[in-house]
Amino acid sequence: MKSKTKKISFGSGCAINDNMLYVASFIDSLEDINHTRMFVLNLDLPVIWHYHDLNSKTVISTAFRPQQNELARAGCALTTDGYIEIFNTEETSTTKISRNTYAPLTSLAVIDGIFFCCGTEGQIYKIESSRTEEIGQGIATNVKVALDKIFDIKKTEDPEKIQRLTSASRSITTLQSIDGLSKEDIYTCGTNGVIYHWNGREWSKCRSGTRQHLHSIHCITQDDIMVCGHNGTIVRGNSREGFKRLASEKISKNFWCIRYFNDSIYIGTTNGLLVLKNGVFVHPLPPNLPLPKDYSIESLSSTEDTLWVVTNRFVLRLNQDEWQLIDHPDNL
User: Helix (H, G, I), strand (E, B), or coil: what is residue 194?
Assistant: First the structure.
């Protein structure tokens, strides 16, 4: 379906299956207004794009909820101000996250049919059957202490104020991503190389092997977790053994999303898609694809057989070693 307003920018997207994608978008002409246009891309239909609007909301993260017992499969979208849309062909519902801070939320995961999300002031929530439980109180409390310290330093006339502010800011944990394989095995990452692990009872800080800001987690198996971040950082490991940086060529690009698919490590940057092969970052897209000169990667998701790559203007799909570029009619 072609929407009425020209030019959209895509954001977070999640794979529903090999031929369906649920993805957030933002109308360029409404840049200063909170508004999200959610699209479902369905390659099995004659008209492949269909949308609905979320007025006064900004979607920051999406996640797929597979069918489980009485729960129907659904595309789920987290807004920065604490709402979760649950969308499928049968119905659309909204869950409000009960929280005691206005700090924006950043990432959503659906694990064992339960919602988990994190945010900019170390907050972590578990939402099950519309009930919210804050499970990251210790992390959030440490952030609050650091913020209070910064506020007090700002009020002083200390000649070393700048140095003290810089030091205090390093103790603020802004969580950027959350992912897991079971409700007793969850990871979250954020600023200054922070990685935490949840065992179903408490969070423990992992040895991350880096001080770089970390942006995205992909839990591949219980023992194999990948995290990417600033300045070409990729760390791999688990909570028991710690994380180590992958050996690779030096690169100054910031890595915003990561996905392990078909024995390859795909990385999203603001300058396109990369794959790490034998320690070298290469461009995986074939030269015959009609790619624009500049585009950014917004999110990566996959099924067992298909990799979905959401860019700021179009969607890429990899299936059976063949790449497909899928334009949106508003951006032609």
Answer: coil
